[in-house]
């Protein structure tokens, strides 16, 4: 049951299975984006706190530690126990997520349930990480071992706080690593609650550490720390480049980056317009448009363009914007004042550059950071709103003539996170799926992210993969062992 007055129990840094104040004693506010008012003061971690967290994580990773000596199946059991505690406290987690992030409560609950499934997926994988035996030359027995990289740093965004935590904790813990995580400063509440649940589940001291704080300080300390072996980040391209540079100049730590997108969705002339418009609607307005895979470039065939724009407009106008705890709300506020103003700025630029504002474009209410679902028609590829990631509820509908043209234009971007096509022609579907430069491609659907399949981007949309078995590789080292035998067997 949704609780807009949910108690906030955890506001301190979590190190070595204890909640502690920041070394500096500083705090920062976390704000309810529905009202713009402070929810709580959170301990502000920085370099000194990261040092303590890394020390705890290193101690938990020593060869003789409880964690390192634990059977892989037992690590899986702990992950499963954590998921059962999340199930017990699902209403609390979803209420905290709605308060801190602003997403409607049913969406927050969907994220909680999805995160439970993520942990259970990796609980099942924990004891299935193995190497190979190699038919090497000569009288040698050669095999490989998969070993955890060690202490890992993880920096997660504010748009899906709980889901991103699960995407990163799951494979890291299944692999046997220890963690220092920095949640986004806008949304620390569910990460801190999960820290408490991890202790209750029985994870040993130091295995999981959560240091809330700001990017340049706490995040910078993680990405440049010489004793962190891998850093995983989800966020903007700009920050991803900073993190990669810090990783290179510190200790060449492993890096995985899930970054921005400007994803294309191509609507073919044979598509059912009503169905296509609904797919596109969900693809761009989900999570208030604050989604890295949002299909903000909607390419529509010229023969059905006007009909599609009309249907898309009807859907956007009917979308209920409001308080995330109000029944029927499907569209909450933007995350904060900075993002709110940025999106409004893009809407203004779109109009100035000649795009047709079909619907939306205005603010909603007198408090919080609400923006109407917005649609632009007559958008051309050279317009700012067609090139830059807006990260808000703005759909740009673009006209095209041929599939080859649509593919070329879809690929004409520095991003490559996701793409989609709506068509009843299998040849078009396969041609597009194979030709488009994107890490995830969806046919006659969108946002079909599943735990079992790898997720990540081409080009400046990232390095490495989240989810699936592929995500484990980023948390593992491969060791080759050769043993000389008396004779070739």
UniProtKB/TrEMBL annotation:
Gene Ontology MF term list: oxidoreductase activity, acting on the aldehyde or oxo group of donors, NAD or NADP as acceptor
Protein's name according to its UniProt entry: Aldehyde dehydrogenase domain-containing protein
Outline the extent of the Aldehyde dehydrogenase domain: 20-481
InterPro entries linked:
Ald_DH/histidinol_DH, Ald_DH_C, Ald_DH_CS_CYS, Ald_DH_CS_GLU, Ald_DH_N, Aldehyde_DH_dom
Q: Which Pfam families match?
A: Aldedh (PF00171)
Q: Which family does it belong to?
A: Belongs to the aldehyde dehydrogenase family.
Q: Which keywords are on file for this protein?
A: Oxidoreductase
PANTHER family, per database record: ALDEHYDE DEHYDROGENASE-RELATED
| Active site (UniProt) | 258
Question: Which SUPFAM superfamilies does the UniProt record give?
Answer: ALDH-like
> Which Gene3D superfamilies does this UniProt record tie to the protein?
Aldehyde Dehydrogenase, Chain A, domain 1 (3.40.605.10), Aldehyde Dehydrogenase, Chain A, domain 2 (3.40.309.10)
